[in-house]
Design a protein that fits this description.
Jann2411-like fold; binds zinc ion
């Protein structure tokens, strides 16, 4: 059996799986089959990135954020999306493998954390609020960076796993199962594919 060809029409953002268990992990998982020859990027243009951000809570309905208008700003946004995603993947992969994270990835997240902190002001209510001039298409990346920091410092980070389908998938997730034996990003996708392969080999 030959593998199915990649879909001609990109899958709707509403149909993208969110199996990571946290915003920052779902962001890393916006690459479908990271290790496949032709990986599908769920957020390959600003419109899809904004739609995905709205769906995952990286943008809130009252943020009123729209995609950038100029080609230059659109291209710059997509470069930032791809770079932060790779930095986070490198940081989390290092944590899973018990290795020191690449310095470039640490610097990459550090930069976004400082951008996120500089974009907020303390309100009279004692809470930090996003400033009006921060409500642009980069805001999701700031929320994602803050979520990543939160996870890296949380005891829950010991539950961070990589999908056992390492030949293609590469998705990361938090194993919140009681016995801590979750192996797949999702049983319906990678778990089933494995079972089918075993059946065929059998
Ligand atoms: Zn998987």
């Amino acid at each position: 059996m030959s593998p199915a060809p990649p879909p001609a029409i990109p899958r709707p953002v509403a149909a993208v799986r969110l199996d990571g268990g946290r915003l920052c992990l779902d962001f890393v998982n916006t690459i479908h089959d990271r290790y496949a020859a032709d990986a599908e990027d769920y957020v390959q243009d600003p419109q899809r990135f904004i739609a995905w951000s709205g769906r995952t809570g990286a943008l809130h309905p009252d943020d009123g954020v729209r995609e950038p208008r100029t080609a230059q700003k659109r291209a710059a946004l997509m470069r930032e999306v791809a770079a932060l995603r790779e930095h986070l993947h490198a940081l989390f992969a290092a944590r899973i493998d018990g290795q020191t994270p690449p310095a470039e990835a640490v610097r990459g997240l550090d930069r976004w954390l400082h951008r996120a902190w500089a974009s907020q002001s303390l309100g009279a209510d004692g809470h930090m609020h996003w400033r009006a001039d921060a409500r642009d298409a980069l805001l999701p990346l700031k929320r994602i960076a803050l979520d990543a920091l939160d996870l890296l410092g949380d005891p829950d980070v010991s539950r961070l796993r990589r999908c056992a389908n390492v030949t293609s998938c590469g998705w990361l997730f938090l194993d919140t199962s009681k016995n801590r034996r979750r192996r797949w990003c999702a049983m319906e996708t990678c778990g089933t594919a494995e079972k089918m392969q075993r059946y065929r080999r059998g």
